[in-house]
Amino acid sequence: MLCFVYVLNFLDRQLLAILAKPIQDTLNVTDGQLGLIGGLYFAFFYCFIAIPVGWLADRTNRVAVLSVACAIWSAATVACGLAKTYPQLVVARMTVGFGEAGGVPPSYAIITDSFPPGKRGTALGIFNLGPPIGAALGIAFGASIAAAFSWRWAFIVLGGIGILAAIVVIIFVREPERGGLDAPEVREATRGQRAGFGETLKMFFTHPALVLAALGSGATQFVTYGMGNFTTLFLMREKGMTLNEVAIWYALVVGIGMSAGIYISGRLIDRFTRRSKQAYALLPAASLVVATPLYIGFVWAPGWELSVLFLLGPMSLNYFYLSSSVALVQDKVKPNQRVMSGALLLLVMNFIGLGLGPTYVGAASDFFRSAYPENSLQIALYSIVPFYFLAIGLFLWLARVLRNEQRAGEIQP
User: Fold this and answer.
1) 118: Cβ–Cβ under 8 A, 6 or more apart, which residues?
2) How far is CA 256 from the centre of its chain?
3) 129: left (phi over 0), alpha (psi -120 to 50) or beta
4) Is residue 194 within 8 Å of residue 59, measured between CB atoms?
5) Where are the domains of the chain?
6) Domain 2-176+195-407 carries which CATH code?
7) Burial class (CB in 10 A: 0-12, 13-18, 19+), 32
8) How many CA atoms lie within 13 A of 222 on its CB side?
9) What pLDDT, in 10s, does the model give residues 201-254?
10) CA 356: distance to chain centroid?
11) Of 6, 9, 17, which is closest to residue 39 (Cα–Cα)?
12) d(Cα 134, Cα 129) in Å, to the nearest integer?
């Protein structure tokens, strides 16, 4: 059920990118405006509201917080379909971000308290199938509905489904005991305690491993969101793909690639972290090394068929960081700090990736348009390749920190 809600969370978030071309044609917005509404404007609410929501969920019923959040973002998605002007669409998208801020952090903590250590990587990997499934369904159904009727109906129909899901969550999902499956000494140390806001904030940002995991994830997301928010527009405008072709082929690439990467990475994390905690960092670093040349091939390819084939690689490998960073953070903090710590992880990585990635790519495309009127998006997408190298470097740094912690006895091998 939590995975299904995450599907809707990501589906609603990605609809703007999927339907960028018809929205652009209807409301006469530029690439830069699309980048702002899908990036900075959305992320400002999504990232910063997650902190008080995480603090509230750590002290109250996490399932209730999740249900209310799902209802808010779904209603706002319906409002996106009703928007008649760009400012109206901006307000609706900000409200979607406000609601989605309460979606993922409570789910992380509910899952962590439902599975023992050693199985959480796989469990979080299954939960994190939400983004690929949501993106694939959004591309398939969103593009199909838009092609058959209107882009507005895609927002209205899918937002309505989310409102129904919010009701189902509060009825069927049960609140697990905080720390119920952790080691007895961990449970006793936090039983009946409520973590302070400042205490958790200080703990997170003074812990080198947590900060590096968040920064490495953010640098990775700069590429994934910068690319993802403009892939449909890039394939249609510069590679000659039609909306119906997007609904089939791009949906398959996203569904297969992202799902495989996220699920496999969760299984590998559970397997290799039993031997060494450095696997939390080395697996994402290795995956990004392989993904980099495939991403360049996706941007370079002369036709959409070859471009989509290259895209299958980074669409899978770019997401190894997700389950790894989430599992690391959830394992290293106290049970009564898990929701807010998850929210802080999302704050850092989503503000960098979701907030700045699409904003930069859209602005860069507008900047390059005068010199490269036929392929400005291609040049903009080339320009984010250095963030692959930045992310690899941060994860290698994290691996060194984890190795030193392990040697010092601060974590168990």
Assistant:
1) 270, 274
2) 17
3) alpha
4) yes
5) 2-176+195-407
6) 1.20.1250.20
7) middle
8) 21
9) 888 888 899 999 999 999 999 999 899 888 888 988 888 888 778 878 888 888
10) 14
11) 17
12) 8
